[in-house]
Model the fold of this input.
Amino acid sequence: RGRASAPGQLTVLEMVETLGLGSASPGMPVFGMLQPGAFGCRVAGAVTAGLAAAGRGGVCAPIPVRGCSAEELLASLPSGALAKWVVEDEVGDSGAAEQARRLYVHFTGDAAPAP
Done:
């Protein structure tokens, strides 16, 4: 419990508790946050929480891009795997809340929820 199965992968605990995947269902939109590392779990979790609070289905998933370009990674995914996606730089804790608000607006087109 709590261990990644391979370097850079999220643990099951992170997927369920931080990303909200415990309430995911087939057909739920997945919004991809592509980034150079695997450090977006907190931001992705905040976006997913914002989606849930607004009554929207969906989950924001951090997707590390290593060893290929974002375009190559996207081309390797099945068609329609991501409802929307964005390439993000990693931010420190001080910028995480603002990044989460910006991503929520990008994915939904709605005004960002209050912090």
